[in-house]
Structures are given as C-alpha cells and as structure tokens.
Amino acid sequence: MLQIRHWSKYQSYKDRRPPWIRFHRSMLDNYKYQSMSAESRALLPMLWLLACEHEDPTSGIVDCSTDEISFRLRQPAKTIVACMDELQLSDFIECNETVTNPLQGRTKTVTPETETETETETETETETETETEKRQNTLPDSQAVHLVFDFWKVTLGHPKALLDDSRKRRIKAALKMGYDVDDLKAAITGCSITPHNMGENDRGQKYDGLNVILKDADNIDRFIANADRPPQSKPKINGSGIFEKLCSKIGEVPASEYPKFDDPLISKALYSAGSWMAFCGMTEAQQKFDFKPKFLEAYTRLEKGG
C-alpha cells in the first residue's frame, strides 16, 4: 500500500470521488518533479488517478499491490518498483504497508461523479508560489547527492559508475560548503568542455572524476567559470607523424651520430629539446612523456617562425 504525499494539493474534494485530478501548472517548475526520470514523472499522475478510487477521497491512499498497479498501468513490475523508489525519494509518495488514514468519522456517503461534471474556478488553491519555491530549493541531502551523481554519470559518460562512500562524501562536502545542486551540475558541465580534463594533455588521460571536479572550492569555481567561458584547445601541429619520424631513426642511426630528416624543422626541434644521444638513451616511456612534449612544443614554435 502507498499514500500520496501532500494529497490535498492535487485533490480538493472532501465528500465525492471525481473522475479527474488536479494537475497544477506549477509542476512545470517543480524542481523535484522535473529532476526525476521521464518514467517516474509519467507514473505520478497515474498514481493520483488510482488514489481517486479510494473510498476516502481525502486519504490519498492507493490500495493496490505492485502487481495490480503494474497490470492496470500496463507497465512491467520492475519499472513500477524503480519509479516508486524515485517518487518516494522525491517525497511524492510514502510506501508503507501500515499506511492508514481513517474516514475521519464522517457520516456522509461518498458520491461518485460523472465525467460530464466540470471543475469550477472557485476551488481554493492550497499552495502559494512562495511555498513552491521553498520546497524546490530545499532538497534532502540524499536526494541532492543522487541528482549530482546521476548528472555526472550521464554528462561525462560513466554509465556503470557506482555511488560509493567516497563519492557521497565528496558531493556532501561540496554541498556543505554552500554550493547547491545547480552549482555542482554547472561545475560538471564545465569539466566536460575543458580540453585538458577531456584528454587533451601530454598523457592523453581524462581527468573527469568527482574527486577532481569537487576537490575544493577553487576547482569547483574554476569549472563553473569554464561552463560559461569554455577554454580553448591548444592549436594542433600541422602535418602528422612528426614525433614518429624522429622515433623511426632509432636503430638506424647510432647515438653518436646526428640523424638527417627531409624536414629541417625536425632536426632543429630535436636540438632545441635536447640531443639525439640523450633521446636514444631514454626509455620508451621517458621518450613519450618527457621528451615528446618538449619536442612538439619546439617544432610548433619553429613552424610559426619562432
């Protein structure tokens, strides 16, 4: 059994069961509602309709099992359960087998209505815009953590990532600093368009973990700024295989001699970055990660006339 939270906002009738529900336009800007998955957003009004069938129209109780809801909505039970978990986390429903809401001692008979009846404009609205905004800006820590984590998974392409204790602590620490969910989403977006973090670096390695993005306030602020003003990628070297041409001479030319290249800039860049003897004495890793950046930087400078 489950119960709709804040049911009076969606159903104002006290003594009759109308064949409709109220779907207020404020839901368009309801942060909790719009932050849920499309499946959960679609399920919620269906549960409201089911709650209308209860003998007490003020209870908000959906007196159906998961299998019954699955059958009536023609949706797999697995989908219903997953969506109900998200709805409960967002405070739209309460799932509890002991949920009860007596008929409040009324003596009136609940009268069903026909579909020809219409709502009138005289219904009292129980929710003000101020109350709506307050609910939207006050999220439980657990929900805020999930919103940030799910956004990071999708934005940076980590669909199989798990929300472990380390990631929870990192997000909670950022929230505790005073950043809100939107701030952290902006930081994640900023990281996703920062070339260095997306692999445009000497190691070709991505640095897009939450431990990097939310490391401290400076990092968060930097990535938020990048979301508005994306940094530019470093210009790429014209031509291809410049460094590979250098590497191809290993084994062909002794370390004591100086190799010759069709492209004179390669020789000049090699001299600028070090020496042929020093290059031949390096390990493959040292050549790739230590010598290569210096060599390519020198080649780029020379190519531009520097």
Keywords:
mainly alpha, 3 domains, three-stranded antiparallel sheet, two-stranded parallel sheet
What does this structure look like?
- The protein is mainly α and 306 residues long.
- It has three domains: 2-136, no CATH class; 139-228, no CATH class; 242-303, no CATH class.
- The protein is 48% helix and 4% strand.
- It has 14 helices and five strands.
- The protein has helices spanning 31-35, 38-51, 66-73, 77-89, 129-137, 141-155, 165-177, 181-192, 210-213, 217-228, 242-247, 264-273, 276-280, 284-303; strands spanning 2-4, 16-17, 61-62, 93-95, 111-112.
- A three-stranded antiparallel β-sheet has the order 3-1-4. Strands 2-5 form a two-stranded parallel sheet.
- Helix 3 (66-73) packs across helix 4 (77-89), helix 6 (141-155) packs across helix 7 and helix 8 (181-192) crosses helix 10 (217-228).
- The longest helix is centred in the C-terminal third of the chain and has 20 residues, at 284-303.
- The chain starts with a strand and ends with a helix.
